[in-house]
Design a protein that fits this description.
single chain
């Protein structure tokens, strides 16, 4: 599985909504790809902060743009 596929599926993975095949593929990719693993951890940290209130640390540079870009790409795919 490549990084672009992971980025499209990471939220399902984080929320436990991946099917068995996707779950295994994502886990295997995260074990060998530090960039995707780091992105997963950032997203999980942000979700924890959102659930608990105001974040302690500022959002990483470029994060908002990456999230909006991914949301837009997913929306265009579903159209």
């Amino acid at each position: 599985m490549d990084c672009k596929k992971i980025q499209k599926q990471i939220f399902r993975f984080i929320y436990g909504e991946s099917d068995e095949y996707e779950l295994r593929a994502i886990k295997a990719h995260l074990e060998i790809c530090n960039a995707c693993e780091a992105e997963q951890k950032i997203i999980e940290e942000i979700l924890v902060q959102i659930k608990s209130g105001v974040p302690d640390d500022p959002v990483p540079d470029g994060f908002k743009e990456r999230v909006l870009s991914q949301v837009q790409a997913l929306a265009e795919q579903d159209s």
